[in-house]
Design goal:
Layout lengths: L1 H8 L2 H9 L3 H27 L4 H20 L5 H27 L9 H25 L4 H4 L1 H21 L3 E3 L3 E5 H25 L6 H29 L14 H21 L4
Antiparallel strand pairs: 1-2
Helix pairs in contact: 3-4, 3-6, 4-5, 4-6, 6-11, 8-9, 8-10, 8-11, 9-10, 10-11
């Protein structure tokens, strides 16, 4: 547990700086890196089952890198130069997608052919995961974005931590034994409580430290919905791991596994918080 806590805390200052202090293009670059690694991890996990060739992974990684960058430019004022860059990236994206489809059909009779099952995983790895993570960029580029972008981070981190430590301390009743044997009902409830509490505490800090007026009832909704989605996201990726027969998606973070092991809940929480902020603003 000590190693797990240390590995989780060490990168926090850099992560916070990228989100809060650095310009949005730095966040876009960071999300591109995370998306590329996460997409590779998902492709590798699926390949572990279907024994398919690794050629499509190259396409997936390039597309995964391009998606956050395209999201960043699309959130800028659409000047002619920015529009040209977005158009160029989208063109490259569709070229790569076309190459993948052509590769699929040309290799159908080959022993190293791309399997149908792998083809179904590719859109999730190449587009869904990168785009959902890229909603962090959208949050950061909103008005008061340096405050809003921390919402999914806080609710996801505190929900995960609350669920983990509550489960370790008092967890007795298994919540989802066939999907994630270590999760308990007590841990899930603890995660919901800490997620809501984290939103309220963060709202109080904003209230006293900035000129923004905060709606605490809306923050409770943020915390509750965000915590539920965080736990659901964790379960989804736990189920995928179980179906793929892997313990962890990677080993880039000792004690935590890979990028998908650490950011699995964020993939669902970030777009959820983006929608909540857009539909039901709390600031």
């Amino acid at each position: 547990m000590k190693k797990r806590i240390i590995v989780a805390l060490v990168p926090l200052p850099l992560f916070f700086a990228i989100l809060f202090f650095f310009p949005p293009y730095i966040l876009a670059a960071a999300v591109s890196l995370l998306a590329a690694i996460g997409s590779f991890e998902l492709m590798r996990a699926s390949n572990n089952v279907i024994q398919a060739p690794m050629r499509p992974v190259v396409y997936v990684i390039i597309i995964a890198v391009l998606v956050p960058i395209a999201v960043y430019f699309s959130n800028l004022v659409m000047s002619a130069a920015a529009l040209m860059q977005v158009t160029s990236m989208l063109t490259l994206f569709f070229i790569l997608l076309s190459l993948l489809i052509i590769d699929f059909f040309l290799s159908m009779k080959s022993e190293r052919r791309i399997k149908w099952r792998q083809l179904l995983v590719i859109p999730v790895a190449a587009m869904v995961i990168p785009y959902m993570l890229s909603t962090l960029i959208g949050l950061r580029m909103m008005t008061a974005g340096h405050l809003l972008v921390l919402l999914p981070i806080i609710v996801a981190f505190l929900t995960d931590s609350g669920a983990y430590f509550t489960g370790v301390a008092i967890g007795k009743h298994k919540a989802f034994p066939t999907i994630s044997p270590n999760k308990t009902i007590e841990g899930c409830i603890g995660g919901l409580v800490t997620g809501i509490a984290g939103m309220l505490i963060y709202g109080f800090i904003i209230d006293i430290a900035t000129l923004h007026t905060v709606s605490y009832p809306i923050l409770i909704i943020y915390g509750l919905v965000g915590a539920v989605v965080t736990e659901a996201g964790d379960l989804v990726f736990s189920l995928i791991k179980r179906k793929c027969g892997v313990k962890d998606y990677g080993s880039i973070m000792p004690g935590h596994g890979g990028v998908l092991d650490r950011f699995d809940s964020m993939i669902f929480t970030a777009p959820t918080m983006y929608l909540l902020v857009a539909i039901l603003p709390a600031l």
